[in-house]
Amino acid sequence: MDVMQFPRMVVSSRDGWDLVARERPPMDWLFRRLVLPMSLLPPLMILLASGGVGARVFPDAGFGNWLIAAVLFFVAEHFSVPIMANSIRQASMAKDGSSRLEDAYTVAAIAPVPLWLSSLAVVFGSAWFVVLVGLVALGASAMLIRHGVDRLLGIDEDVEASEVAMQVTSFGVLTWLVLLVVAGGAVTLL
Fold it and tell me: Which stretches are annotated as coiled coil (predicted)?
């Protein structure tokens, strides 16, 4: 899987996705090579935020709160990917698409890449910039879901593929909000 294909995968159901469809990377490979390393970024950025933009937004939070938030966020991320994979699989089967968990996991592992990368916006130190980059990343993730559903799950009908993508994206947005609440709660409530 070529990381340089990700930007093309956002705008196309073919570019990059053809390679993924041919290789069919195993779930353990996707976890070790994509999910685990990428999911480290947000917790690291949470810790970085503790001394920058986060300290300005949450001035009363101590470093211990930030550390707990980072750990909880990391753990929650690792629950969310398999939950998303199962959601994708169920939605796909409802439209007579692929019932293979591996295909659904592939989409679930690829889709959050823009969200994980968006955490790097913390480096710029502006809360508004972080929010703006996060919203753009959310849109890119939605497009990855749409193209992944189209290419990997075998849902040929455009309307049905769009329905599955919309259902999965809605669940994904809810999941991401829960992750943010978990981190925010740890920073503010502990």
Answer: none
